[in-house]
Amino acid sequence: MNDRTENLLLALPGLLLLGLAFFLPIAQMLLLSISGENGPTLDHFVRFLTDPFYLGILWRTVRLSLLITAICAAIGFPLAYIMTKVGPKARLWLVVMVILPLMTSVVVRTFGWMVLLSRSGLIPEILRDMGLVGRTFALMQTEAAIVIGMVQVLLPFMTLSILGVLTRIDGRLEEAARTMGCSFLQTIRTVVLPLALPGIVAGSLLCFTLSASSFVTPNLLGGTRIQVLAASIYKSVTATPDWPFAAAQAVILFVGILLVLAPYIKLTGTKNG
User: Fold this and answer.
1) With the C-alpha atoms ordered 160, 165, 168, 172, is the resulting torsion angle positive or negative?
2) Which domain holds residue 180?
3) Is 231 a member of any domain?
4) Kindly report the CA angle at 129 between 126 and 135, in degrees rounded to 5?
């Protein structure tokens, strides 16, 4: 038995599990999305792509996912950079603080934000007391509420992705840049940021894909008035119910995420090759 056959046999259980848990459901979803009363049809995709309501949901999902990803990167990079500059004990506590929210259910955290963002919640009350907003101001069932909740959920993924890259950067590079006359911000822009780009890209992909496919937090904070694509899929399955149309929406979401992942996968393969 040669090495290739032995490696294939070792990987066979994992491949079977991957096929049963991933490829088989995806194949069933694809078949369901083109199923019609008189055979295969693309009517479900045409219905979605020609209806301004569903196109608006798609655009809202993409727009909010990009905004959430950008905010996570803007917060995650400085936080990860600070974590690389503090001592080992302080870094450990910061890592624990970043990871700690992941140990709590997303539903629990989202209900916490519902309490804080409700009309009588702490955050609107503080803004009203400061005179920044009117008495009827509310954050619940708005896009801002979705962004706040999703940033809190996804920030650890961005921070840890960047931290893993920053810890491998030689500190002498920053010292050399400062010696050559660069200011602190110039050093960050010309040395640290380019070297940290792989971590930023990896964290951005995680945040974007998880945000685009998220259901619980957008549904609870945005309500039925502000739907994202995952909530629209859920509504098509439970309220209508229209399984083929829900499958078509899931395929569109799946293909959209693949289109985002494809350039990164290709770029990674080129660098490794």
Assistant:
1) negative
2) 63-211
3) no
4) 100
> CA 250, CA 203: separation in Å to the nearest integer?
23
- CATH number of the CATH domain containing 199: 1.10.3720.10
Q: Are the C-beta atoms of 146 and 66 separated by less than 8 Å?
A: no
Distance in angstroms (rounded) separating the CA atoms of residues 220 and 183:
45
CA dist., res. 257 & res. 157, Å (int): 17
Say which DSSP state 102 is in: G
| Whether 211 contacts 64, CB under 8 Å | yes
User: Cα–Cα distances in Å, from 62 out to 54, 132, 137, 165, 207?
Assistant: 12, 30, 26, 27, 12
DSSP 73-103: HHHHHHHHHHHHHS-HHHHHHHHHHHHGGGG
**pLDDT per position in the chain (273 positions), as tens?**
567 777 777 888 888 888 888 888 888 888 888 888 777 888 889 999 999 999 999 999 999 999 999 999 999 999 999 999 888 888 889 889 988 888 888 889 999 999 888 888 888 888 888 888 877 787 888 899 999 999 999 999 999 999 989 988 888 888 888 888 888 888 888 888 988 888 898 899 899 999 998 988 999 998 878 889 998 898 888 887 888 999 999 999 888 888 877 777 666 555 544
Instruction: Give the rounded distance of the alpha carbon of 8 from its chain centre.
Output: 33
